[in-house]
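Hey, can you fold this?
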Amino acid sequence: MKNILGIYGIICSVFLGFTANAQIKENEKIKLITLDPGHFHAALVQKTTLPDIAPDVYVYAPKGPDVKSHLDKIDAYNLRVIDPTHWSEIVYTGDDFFNKMIAEKKGNVVVMAGNNQKKTEYIKRSIDAGFNVLGDKPMAIDNQHFEMLKSAFAAAEKKKLVLYDIMTERYEITNTLQREFASLPEVFGELKKGTPQNPGVEMESVHYFYKSVSGSVLSRPAWFFDVKQQGEGLQDVGVHLIDLTQWECFPEKTIDYKKDIQFNSAKRWPSYVTLSQFKAITKLNGFPAYLKEYVVKDTILKVYANGSVNYKLFGTNIKLTVKWAYSAPPGSGDSQNSVLHGTKADLYIRQGETEKFTPVLYIEPANESTAYEKQLSENLKAIQGKYPGVKLKKQAKGWEVIIPDSYKDGHEAHFGRVTEKYLNYLREGDMPEWEVPNMIAKYYTTTTALALAKAKN
């Protein structure tokens, strides 16, 4: 009788979509649930077909333009001529969408990319209900949500669930190679500690409200411009910069946020969006009531989309800056520039007009010499072993890293690669020990920086 009950429990677990300990069985498909998709990143998770994922995807959301926009993007992926996907979206819309998702248990992984004011609570309640979660950044936008997120991670560990955020920038090849060259002592030396005035690490990300995604002009929801719902710039896009700093400069090193992080300063400042610009982005005729407190002179929206933090991680001074503007100059788009200062060389990623607005990695030695060039040439072989075709081109100061186009798959493709990594963690149960504490450290950094910046204001 005991064995029969055990077999019955296993069968029920498969049909419910997840097992008690959330381990995905060898031949079991991953069953996705998309929850309240208000950001286009939710669709990008499904831009490519992944064989481990079942074609039926369950969507739970309130009625409105957000879910329609999401489904339109999925339809476009299904109908494209080249490499079409074959998703079947099974949609439930209603005010009780979240409770409906919990009750029906149609899948084993919940994908979240939308309103960030609600997201942390969605994460915690989904984990409590036994779902794995793949969440878009940010997973917390202020101190209160950070405490809730910590609780979600603790619950996930207890239930053996996988909670993970979508860090696409690790798959941008220039960032990857910046990390690789920084790991070569003969080339880079050691990361400089720097000072608050001259940090050892500097990164700046510039984004634009008006942009194209998957070949179409992006229509954003009005709440995207409410920092109480979307979060401020450093607490949103800045998550990527903090993740890259941790991942590139201190690879596989576990961070204790209570003792390894110290803050120097933080600040925030607004971007201004005119009513006509707001209409072009949201397709609305006016500002909603919840944005009225940010409206200046009736026609200008004040959005605290910009921020910077100057802090220490393991004693290294770091400065990270996020900026937002309405639209990019012709021929350009979202950009990211960074530099890691080493005792033997600086590793720059630049994305300006000289680089035709595409990221380019440079190696600029402190003391250029024949001996250094020989060391660089020798160490390049190790890089080429991992990334065949990578070469160096001599510049007036140092070298440009020449990267074959085959590695430049683009930002949208990186969502598929993150999802593949996440699926591997689900299958193998081998997420590195440093990932969770470093995610917690990441959101501690962003949310504490916000509190400091507001206190300064």
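Oh, and this one too while you're at it.
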Amino acid sequence: MNFENTITFAAGLDVNDSLNEFRQKFHIPQHNGKDCIYFTGNSLGLQPKSTAKYVQQELNDWAKLGVEGHFHAKNPWMPYHEIFPQQLSTIVGCLPHEVVVMNSLTVNLHLLMVTFYRPTKERYKIICEAKAFPSDQYAFESQVKYHGFDPAEAIIEVAPREGEHILRTEDILSVIQKHGDSVALVLFGGVNYYTGQLFDMAEITKAAHAIGAYTGFDLAHAAGNVELKLHEWNVDFACWCSYKYLNSGPGGVAGVYIHERHARNTSLPRFAGWWGYTKETRFKMEKGFDAIPTAEGWQLSNAPVLSMAAHKASLDIFEEAGMSQLHEKRKRLSAYLHYIMNDINSRQQEKVIEVITPSDKTERGCQVSMLMLKKGREVFDALTKQGVIADWREPNVIRVAPVPLYNTFEDVWQFGNIIETLLKH
């Protein structure tokens, strides 16, 4: 498509957008009585208008039924987590019995590493991307130390080449091959939180398996954003939060994927809790853990129903919209934002903004990261005063993420227009 940097062109794209009506399903933050340009769905997704109704249903049943709500609520609480696998399997590309909703992201990452990071004297290294999200870094470091290894030796970070911002797939694969049978685990973010780069998870998994290592992914910035085919790619495990692109509320309940070949293996080591125990005999309260032979076998505690109700409200919207349509609009929104920023740069006397997110649509999701070459913080603060909710990351990057469920092409144009006006002054 040949884009144009005009309000008329952007408005025309919105008129022809089959998903345009979905914006009305969300609460849009206000600025001076008008809708903000909300570009931080990569940090916290907006609240669906239906969320209050979903949560209120559980509050009403709690008030009316008390403990009996576990069995007699409109949506019985005891099996509440069982309403999610079908919808989530479509979003992350897996079989329903390979996915479960539980806990929070970093808790799940640690639980999965208990199973899939089993270092030996010979095979103990973890390979990850440099500048992984801090919680991931801390999880890797603490797990390595727990097993008695030195993080400086055990954690191998793959960094971009000198003068580049993104990782080349061939460099990732080369590092995996170089360290060979000393590697226990390859664990990347699906989408890097800083640059917005979408990694080639299929190739990374294939390379890790070739040397006998497990592969896992933190999909915090990927789930609900990019197309995922975890089962087809043969990924061993993955985890994600639900409060970013999945719009399930601050600190919302998280998700886990475990390939069926592992999920069925009830002898795999894990930290166990009673909700992962075989359902038919769970309430006999007997000693000796008997795991459910699905991803549910990694559960610890019963469902946090109020948080899950908010999650359900969002997933129903995803199901209505359809993942294929969301992916197509996401690609167009991101491409239009890239076009607008390149057009603005072309008219500057000196380059002020460098887009460090890949221009290739197969290597990015919603997020576009802009490296500010001068006066970055001033520009960011001025954007905020103009009603643009974006995200600042030290030392000098502005992250923006037009999301297909509630952002418009006019949002993208307005953002570019504000940026260009700020640069002029």
